Amino acid sequence: MLSSLPSTLLAGEKFDFKISLAQWSLHKAMFSGKLTTLDFASVARKEFGLDAVEYVNQFFADKAKDHGYLKSIKQRADDNGVKSLLIMVDNEGNLSSPVFSERKSAVENHYKWVDAAAYTGCHSIRVNLHGSGSEQDWKQASVDGLGMLAEYGASQKVNVLVENHGQYSSNAALLAEVIKQIQNPFCGTLPDFGNFCLKREKGDLWESPCIDWYDRYKGVRELLPYAKGLSAKTFNFDANGNEPDIDYKMMLELVKASGYKGYIGIEYEGGQLGEYSGIRATIKLLEKVREELR
By three-state DSSP, how is residue 4 classified? Predict the structure, then answer.
């Protein structure tokens, strides 16, 4: 049976969480070559004082089976006193494809990242379940594809987590139904505070404006019972240091009510501030609200 999070904190227990850094927060520096994955743990610790990181496979896509490289990732993290939490996996096929052969191929493509997560000490990989066809077709295909991958994850003691990352996967109630039906303790969610776009103006084009949103607070609440990580998405900050489009106090009140006690990962994607400044602003925001809710 899937274990759910406690509904409330124990009497007298303070609300608390630790802060981690998602590699995507530094995607401009990574894509430009100013930083590499091997620099990541050191930057997280020395620049931001953080002790945990979340990797993105796009920045070392050809290294999943390179044990020498993976050993270096692990060593860099160990040297800096940093925990490796998870690997966000993209571009490895459609786990919810309506075509079984495509679905099976995608599942097998993800095996190497489960293995890489286990090798580097990560507790999870994050995967996508975008969607096509009817809701029922997507649900059936997702239960099959994600379920197969979760079985492999369980064999390696690595969780397989789904992020609300667009299309049907951003319909939190529907995604929760998939997780519940799979009934595997190594299958869960990585709720993202920002990624609740159901439909974009130009289909799958990520840069296209969103024309249909799922309620982000309802969505996070629905996904929290299965969460083994959280992504604190930020884009912009007002004069008071708040994210104008995401009510962080409301979000963290939901987290507090759920009893979640793991890491919350910073995923800064803004353009007004540089990446380092945006990360620092997000840390400050999380720390401020955490203190308010204690």
Answer: coil
What is the C-alpha to C-alpha distance for residues 226 and 4, in angstroms, rounded to an integer?
Answer: 6
Q: Computed over its alpha carbons, how large is the radius of gyration of the chain?
A: 18
Sheet-wide strand order for 83-88: 187-189, 159-162, 124-127, 83-88, 52-56, 18-22, 263-268, 230-234
List, in sequence order, every residue forming a beta bridge with 188; answer none if it has no partner: 161
Asked if residue 199 is part of any domain, the answer here is: yes
Q: Could you give the residue ranges of the DSSP H alpha helices within 156-274?
A: 172-182, 216-223, 248-258
Beta partners for 230?
A: 264
Q: Is residue 11 part of a domain?
A: no
The one-digit pLDDT tens for each residue of the chain (294 residues) are 343 344 455 555 789 999 999 999 999 999 999 999 999 999 999 999 999 999 999 999 999 999 999 999 999 999 999 999 999 999 999 999 999 999 999 999 999 999 999 999 999 999 999 888 999 999 999 999 999 999 999 999 999 999 999 999 999 999 999 999 999 999 999 999 999 999 998 877 667 899 999 999 999 999 999 999 999 999 999 999 999 999 999 999 999 999 999 999 999 999 999 999 999 999 999 999 999 998
Residue at 216 is within a domain? yes
Domain of residue 117 covers: 18-293
Structural domains in the chain (count) = 1
Residue 9 lies in a domain: no
* Count of CB atoms situated within 10 Å of the CB of 218: 13
Query: What separation in angstroms does the CA of 65 have from each of 36, 147, 247, 253, 280?
Result: 18, 23, 41, 41, 33
Q: Which CATH number does the domain housing residue 73 bear?
A: 3.20.20.150
Give me the residue label for tokens 């439909």. Answer: 199
